[in-house]
Amino acid sequence: MADTAVLAFSGGLDTSVAVRYLQEAGMDVVTVTVDVGQGGDFAAVAAKARRLGARRHYNIDARREFVSGYVIPAIKANALYQKKYSLATALARPLIAEKMLKVASRVGAGALAHGCSGKGNDQVRFDVALRAGSDLPIVAPIRDGNLDREEELEFAKKHGIHVEKVAKKYSIDENLWGRAIEGGDIEDAYKEPPDSAFEWVRPSGQERPVYAEIEFRRGVPVRADSVRGALAIIEHLNAKAGRAGVGITDHIEDRTVGIKSREVYEAPAATCLIEAHADLEKMVHTSHQTRFKGVVDEQWAHLAYTGLWQDPLRRDLDAYIERCQQNVTGTVRLRLHRGSVRVAGRRSPSSLYDVGAATYGAGSTFEQGLAAGFAELWGMQSTEAVKLQKKGRAGT
Ligand code: ARG
């Protein structure tokens, strides 16, 4: 009997080509589509899998799990890789891998397969997550065959595989946390992406500013405007901020495999929620907590990006992050206008912001006389070093 390969299947170009390649290598293919909020027509994806000859197709709705187990931890970690990328694709991979492993044990699979190329991060994320949970061999037809996109399109044409118009232009990956647009004419790093590349964000935004009020409880968004529940909040903000032109990121990204790539993203909800959450943290944490949290956040994003979600360090960091979210409770008001997002106001029952101390007006509780001595001691070593330098006695 032929070996069964369990393939993560989106119905896009790479994974459709992968089905045929696996079959040509003599394998039976079981396809798994995981709904992480990418939208689209799952019945059509299932029909495509069947048309391609998949022995069985699984469609698994994992949206809630994705939000609670991956997106909320990312919000708590203010997770932005290289200060820009909200990690939508990166966060979904370990969850998709977990679902593949479940199906693999159900069908008694002999191999695990994905449609990633050898140039990207996703292969690393899938491989690490699959290896952490199974000893089955991993087959990656696009990577193994060293195929480029043109060759894939050619192969698809030859095998009568339908390819969406947008897939001919760009490589797209999306889920409820964001949409990544790669390849095609935007590989020219100086060329502005055409407005037509965007589906979630209206690049020019609306004439008038709109406001979004976001309430957090222990670091978790519990309400946005009148909408409650994390999943609904994300959908609400994707729509609202997207209309206001908010959420486009265009940057040069360092991939795990060493390549620099030009990346374009649409992530309106992620942009709003991370901006609001980070601002609220600064109101309730001491300056020491805030500085240390920045280091923790950066490490967290790096692990998630580079496919090391399973590393014990991520759990260690999560434990710290969870502890310091205890008082991240409050409300943040965002002003969204023509592509910009700005915190317009924030309040918290755990606020350390003390108007009495900070005010430049009358009635301040702050004793200015204490500050003179503080300033002298605080700068003591620095001023001494400068003086020595002037005398030519120190190399600093
Ligand atoms: N650069 C992003 C990442 O590594 C997006 C990848 C998008 N994936 C794709 N198959 N188009 O997470």
Radius of gyration: 25 Å
How many DSSP E strands?
Answer: 14
| Mean model confidence by pLDDT | 96
Principal-axis shape equals elongated
Largest sheet: 5 strands, parallel
Q: Which structural class fits the helix and strand makeup? A: alpha/beta
Give a concise summary:
The chain has 396 residues and is an alpha/beta fold.
Protein architecture, described:
This protein has 396 residues and is an alpha/beta fold. 44% of the residues lie in helices and 20% in strands. It has a domain at 4-166: Rossmann fold (3-Layer(aba) Sandwich), CATH 3.40.50.620. It has a five-stranded parallel β-sheet, sandwiched between helices. α4 packs parallel to α5 (122-133), α9 crosses α10 and α11 runs antiparallel to α12. The chain is elongated and about 85 Å long. The N and C termini lie far apart (73 Å). Bound molecules: arginine (ARG).
Highlighted features:
44% helix, single chain, 396 residues, elongated, 5-stranded parallel β-sheet, alpha/beta, 15 helices
Annotate the secondary structure layout.
Elements: E1 4-8, H1 13-24, E2 28-35, H2 42-51, E3 56-61, H3 63-76, H4 88-107, E4 111-113, H5 122-133, E5 138-139, H6 141-144, H7 149-158, H8 165-169, E6 171-175, E7 178-182, E8 210-217, E9 220-224, E10 227-228, H9 230-243, E11 248-254, E12 260-266, H10 268-284, H11 287-305, H12 312-324, E13 330-337, E14 340-347, H13 355-358, H14 369-378, H15 380-390
Parallel strand pairs: 1-2, 1-4, 2-3, 4-5
Antiparallel strand pairs: 6-7, 7-12, 8-9, 8-13, 9-10, 11-12, 13-14
Helix pairs in contact: 1-7, 3-4, 4-5, 9-10, 11-12
The protein binds arginine.
Arginine binds at residues 89-90, 121-122, 171, 173, 180, 182, 253, 263.
